[in-house]
Amino acid sequence: MNYKPVIGLEVHVELKTKSKMFCSCKADYFGEKPNTNTCPVCLGLPGALPVPNKKAIEGCVMIGLALNCKINNFSKFDRKNYFYPDLPKGYQISQYDQPFCTNGYVYLGGETNRHLPSGTKKRIRIRRVHMEEDTAKLIHQGQDSLIDFNRSGVPLVEIVTEPDFESAKEVVEYLKKLQQIVRYLNVSDADMEKGNMRLEPNISLMINDKGLRIKKTLPKYKVEVKNINSFRFAEKAIEYEIKRQTEILSEGKTPVQETRGWDEDKQKTVTQRIKEEAQDYRYFPEPDIPPIRFSDSDIASIECIMPELPDVKMQRFTNIYRLSAYDAEILTRDRKIAEYFDETTVIGFHHEIKRKRIANYIINRKIDINKILPAELIQIIIKDNQKSSLDEDKLSKVIAQILIENQKAVTDYKNGKVQAIGFLIGKVKQHFPKADTRQIKNVLEKSLK
Amino acid sequence: MKINVPHIAKLANLPLKPQEKDKFEKQLSEILSYVEKLSEVDTKDSETTSQVTGLENITREDEVSPSLTQEEALSNTKNKHNGLFKVKAILED
Question: Would B72 be classed as within a structural domain?
Fold first, then answer.
């Protein structure tokens, strides 16, 4: 039997605001002494009142817009109730039925995807993008668990996809794309190892009955995998799950619906303790926070301050700048490099330096964009151009000598045996091994006239 | 309406003695039927809302202000270790 993976993703991204989501404690907890960035709100003390961070809401909306979501004109916060020591209030402030952003999509593939035929794009639907707060950090130590509340209340954006992925590779491509987008927006560092980007894939398999009418019903079970803190682990964990579930299904059984964790030492997913009852979060509207209403012009003004996104940049670089998809992809990977390139081309334009040449310098010579200003790079290119024209004098002299020494090839060429020029180029190259063949050919052709 | 008292007690993180089950089931039923009275009100012309303050868009600017010190944060607990709150180990197999 042939099975088709059905994978959906929940990704959490921690925003890099200055202050926390509902209080004005410092949000950056990295390297801080434990429990030094807390207050009654983020410690969950009775009577403390949360007030949402405007900048964080903007960040969430930006992510939604970048993922082509509808931004809802009316939203609210809700309480998600459960008991766990990292959640001091006994509930997490999140969003339930009226999140900020819904129904978006992103495309995978296009020119950069090696796993899809070129020109094909795959649409991944985004179900929702909502705003919530991070929990405290738990450290397990023998008989005790220790809690640091510095992370409690840090703004967290949750991005949920529909189960549209069919392979681990697609998931990784999506994750890289999402990471690139939030970094472009400058709303999060999205560093998986530091934990400011976390993902939970849910994976199941359905029978791949090609030829028959494909059933639209999803599998009756799904397995959620946690504890994944790198792209590589994500790929390995998903591939392991597909293999494991295929084996169970092949025996005619159904995998247990459960939460598993990736164990890097064992190179497998392992069952995590299953909560005794079905999750029952009893969501209800957060009474302490009035609802949020966005007018269309509020949304438009957030859209206005967003930078050009990678996909649009990529298109501009290939369609208008006429760069190859390969060059454009490298130049747009990081917003800083893309902007550096853009800036350099503007200066280069006045010196008649082609964009492709600038691209070559940035990509092949690995220019340190933090040290060399765009104008300096143009100066370097101009200098190199002068150097190569100096070389041209030398080149002409050497060529003149070679033409004298190889009269037969010269005669052949003049009699119409054009390929004789290859032999002469070879001779010249012995003197200038690093020279550009085209340049040699040009000078040779001139001399042979 | 049937009320699953042990389930509710578990969700509320409250210990429940077996003999309390019937007592609370009766009390919770009474509360429910009392609240049920609200359905007698004609709400045909009322808008559904979860907020009656009339407030909207109450937010704060992204500014940091001083937090509690570590000592202050931990001052209400006896269970601490190296500046951290201490609880019984959370089972994670």
Answer: no
Res. A117: pLDDT tops 70: no
Q: b/e for A45-76, b at 16 or more Cβ within 10 A?
A: eeeeebebbbbbbbbbbbbbbbbebebbeebb
- Is residue B27 situated within a structural domain? yes
Cβ-contact A150, A36 below 8 angstroms: yes
Query: In this predicted structure, what is the pLDDT of residue B93?
Result: 43
- The whole-angstrom distance between B78's CA and the closest CA on chain A is 13
Rounded distance, CA A415 to CA A427, Å?
Answer: 20
For chain B, how many structural domains are there in total? Answer: 1
Residue B51 exposed, middle or buried by CB count within 10 Å (0-12, 13-18, 19+):
middle
With contacts defined as CB-CB under 8 Å, which chain A residues touch B93?
270-273
Q: Which of B56, B62, B85 is opposite residue A53, by nearest beta carbon? A: B62
Q: Classify residue B54: in a domain, yes or no.
A: no
Architecture of the A392-449 domain: Orthogonal Bundle (1.10)
The model's pLDDT over A189-216, given as tens digits with 9 standing for 90+, comes to 999 999 999 999 999 999 876 655 555 6
Q: Please give the pLDDT value at position A114.
A: 47
Query: What is the average pLDDT across A79-91?
Result: 93
Q: Which of B48, B63, B84 to mutate to probe the A interface, most A CBs <10 Å?
A: B84
- In this complex, which of B7, B67, B88 lies closest to A37 when CB atoms are compared? B67
Question: Residue ranges of the domains in chain A?
Answer: 3-302, 308-372, 392-449
B50, B70, B90 member nearest A35 (Cβ) = B70
Domain range for B9: 5-39
Mutation to test the A interface, candidates B53, B56, B64, most A Cβ within 10 Å: B64
B70 vs A56: CB contact, 8 Å cut-off?
Answer: no
Angle, vertex CA A382, rays to CA A380 and CA A386, nearest 5: 115
Structural class in CATH, domain A308-372: mainly alpha
ipTM score over 0.90, yes or no: yes
**Model pTM score:** 0.85
For residues A80-102, give the mean pLDDT. Answer: 95
Q: Which of the pair, A383 or A95, is modelled with greater confidence?
A: A95
Asked if residue B65 belongs to a domain, the reply is no
For residue A447, pLDDT over 90 is answered with no
